[in-house]
Amino acid sequence: MKKHNFNAGPSILPREVIEQTAQAVLDFNGSGLSILEISHRHKDFQAVIDEAVALFKEVLNIPEGYSVLFLGGGASMQFCMVPYNFLGKKAAYINTGVWAKKAIKEAKNFGEVVEVASSADTTYNYIPKGYTVPDDVDYFHYTSNNTIYGTETRIDPEVNVPLIADMSSDIFSRPIDFSKYICVYGGAQKNLAPSGVTFAIVRNDALNKMERTIPTMLNYQTHVDGGSMFNTPPVLPIYSAMLTLRWIKANGGVEEMARRAKERADLLYGEIDRNKLFRGTCAVEDRSYMNICFVLKDEYKHLEPEFMAFAQERGMVGIKGHRSVGGFRASCYNAMPLESVQALVDCMKEFEKLH
Fold it and tell me: Could you tell me the pTM of the whole model?
């Protein structure tokens, strides 16, 4: 039976990326050695990281003056690394979910944090609007896609201060105007690579502005100067990231990824809204294209275990909602084929007929 992988992360990757990575684990570039055992200083791996950086810049249309870094520690490490490097006195954050809240907590260790808005009052089921970002902050930080709650900001915010964004779960799913940003970061395990590597795109002229001493490994300049090789980088996920970037480019780039994302989301949200058993959990205008959350209507809530088993029998994997929200979550990242979304829709229709 075909499996349809809706896992939230680590998550689906293009099949050819998985196969090529598996081949490199056995034999990298015909060297007779696994990519797991070669030196990261070897010219063949330097070529991998060089191509990965070049593709990052090409696919996302990143202008001159920015560095692409491959780091460890996950996006969670970036929650402190960002304020270490960019927060002089005051920063603005918007609280749209668990990850935004954790980023705010870390930033408070480095200076004043203005929480411009929050959707915590309704369990983060919408993106706040009409808030004001003070002009005297060092930056405004937002989380573009909220994996747990299924909300997404798909347009770069219009503010008068530098932007910083956690784009862990929707990077490469839409074009970005990098001229507005001094830093974009994220864990790679959703739209880019296996877990174990974190990307950070930093504007070079925004670095080295802090009076504080920044620990060597937490200083972006260290990794800019070292070409992401100050210490041994996560070799395997960087290789997979390069392959994924090749796949994105060959499949039409971020513009085509954005078109596919909308097509998948329209199909599944259309069924959620039509089906008598289910309902969405978020404000319609803020619905995520990446993490589509839904529940059974109150009168059908008792059917949840039955639907979960029904879906699993038909090859649906990873659709259980996050424990803090419940219900169901279909994560539809770039590598998700439309056929898998159609299979889930067919499954929902079939379940409706039974009840």
Answer: 0.97
